[in-house]
Amino acid sequence: MSVEVSVVVPVMNEEENVRPLLEEIVAALQHESFEVLFVDDCSKDSTVSVLENAKAEFPMLRCLYHGQNCGQSSAVRTGVHRAQGTLVVVLDGDGQNDPADIPVLLNAFRHPEAPNNLGMVAGERRKRHDNWRKRMASRVGNGIRRSILRDNAKDAGCGLKVLSRTVFMELPYFDHMHRFMSALILRHGYEIIYVSVNHRPRVHGQSKYGVIDRMRKSITDLWGVRWLRRRCRLPIDVTEI
Length: 241
Ligand SMILES: Nc1nc2c(ncn2[C@@H]2O[C@H](COP(=O)(O)OP(=O)(O)OP(=O)(O)O)[C@@H](O)[C@H]2O)c(=O)[nH]1
Ligand SMILES: [Mg+2]
Hints:
This protein is α/β, with parallel strands linked by helices.
């Protein structure tokens, strides 16, 4: 059966979250032809066996495992590379993104008045359910990134996105690229629409990123992405005669 939508979920040590999240994704997409790819990044807990056990019950579930821990961006890349759909939905595996928002993003992507060169519909979290330290760091980080990259993204850290698979395949890959999707997509001449989405508290498991570590890495990457954007020369259209 052909698949139109591929949902890609990067996970590491999310044993209690994957099963309820899978159920919510399947419920949200009952009117779609879809697959769900969970990409496990060498978890140390029972995430993989929980997914394996769910396979018999959920025929649309695909499970991919990294033999080495390579990071969230790498897991997203693996999932998108293996995806069969023309549209890819990416969301976090910790249950903080609400799968009920997926149809809203898909409708925005397919809307008859959506721009022809639409590359991505990205979520923006309405009300963050994170602690204040994280919210404050995120606000500062978003402000600095926006002023340097001029990418117009208010909430680059929101994990929920719908992308054209071919657009993702054009983007350069580097560790933590998932935080710079808007800037990278604009670099390639595509448009982005932002949609306000729900955000939920993390109920199980632990956050994988510390505030300071995340900021340190993001500052280095910021200069790299700025360089990438400045060094991009692509034609708006190509004509064959
Ligand atoms: N595959 C893979 N996934 C990861 C890795 N680190 C985090 N993730 C997943 O990426 C998603 C986001 O990670 P979180 O720890 O929730 O980080 P966050 O949502 O950016 O930040 P919080 O606000 O702290 O939750 C979750 O599904 C994690 O399991 C990793 O190294 N590899
Ligand atoms: Mg999270």
